[in-house]
Write a structure and sequence with these properties.
With 222 residues, this protein is an alpha+beta fold. 41% of the residues lie in helices and 18% in strands. Helix 2 runs parallel beside helix 3 and helix 5 packs parallel to helix 8.
């Protein structure tokens, strides 16, 4: 059975439907998080940021992450300690799609770090005092993702880093591979949506900003 079949709505809906009233979610027939709205009856997911429904593959990536999150038994809260996605959570796993997104992030926001706040505005971000610009966005009620951008200086190109609260793996899985897949998927989705949101805000044609763009999925693979 493929990943897309294993984490289809029919396979995980019972687990996902345990989330209302738990782990930071409000009670109700919909889950609202990360600028998304999931209809618990049908499984349809609407992206409030980009104004469209997720494709089937995009939705399955979200179901995968939610199904992991729903398995959390103890709500420990944030630790306040940040860890690096690439150096501590997934030091040996690389995602070419995420890398392409990060390249665009560094090019666009490295030239003007303040644009990061414009792009992140719909996500109800929190300011973080790191680098030249940084935002903290809650991908799930207990899992913030922090994107940091440095503008660079003479002889040094712009750079960036993606950070998570140290508690993130607790809310994702006991298996390292699943934690990495979910964390990379959240990072890939955030970077993609920030780029596309900025393009929409500035009236830049999506095809032009998608040159080399690594996609919008919630897992590494397409």
């Amino acid at each position: 059975m493929s990943f897309w079949e294993l984490y289809s709505w029919d396979k995980v809906r019972s687990k996902v439907r345990t989330l209302p009233g738990r782990l930071g979610f409000e009670k109700g027939d919909k889950l609202k998080f990360f600028g998304l709205t999931l209809d618990l009856e049908t499984g349809a997911i609407y992206d409030d940021i980009l104004g469209r429904y997720l494709t089937q593959k995009e939705a399955v990536g979200v179901y995968f992450i939610l199904s992991l999150y729903a398995e959390t038994k103890v709500d420990i809260g944030e630790s306040g300690e940040l860890v690096s996605l690439s150096r501590q959570i997934c030091p040996f796993i690389h995602c070419s799609n995420l890398r392409k997104n990060i390249t665009i992030i560094e090019k666009v926001f490295g030239e003007n770090p303040q644009l990061l706040y414009t792009a992140a505005e719909p996500f109800n971000y929190k300011l973080i005092d790191i680098g030249d610009a940084a935002v903290k966005v809650y991908a799930l009620p207990r899992i913030p993702v922090i994107l940091v951008v440095w503008a660079g200086e003479e002889g040094l190109p712009p750079s960036s880093e993606i950070l998570f609260d140290k508690s993130a793996p607790h809310y994702l899985s006991e298996e390292t591979s699943a934690v990495c897949e979910a964390a990379i998927g959240l990072a890939r989705a955030l970077t993609a949506r920030l780029i596309l949101r900025l393009a929409k805000e500035l009236g830049v044609g999506i095809p032009s900003i998608e040159v080399g763009f690594g996609g919008y999925g919630y897992v590494c693979a397409d």
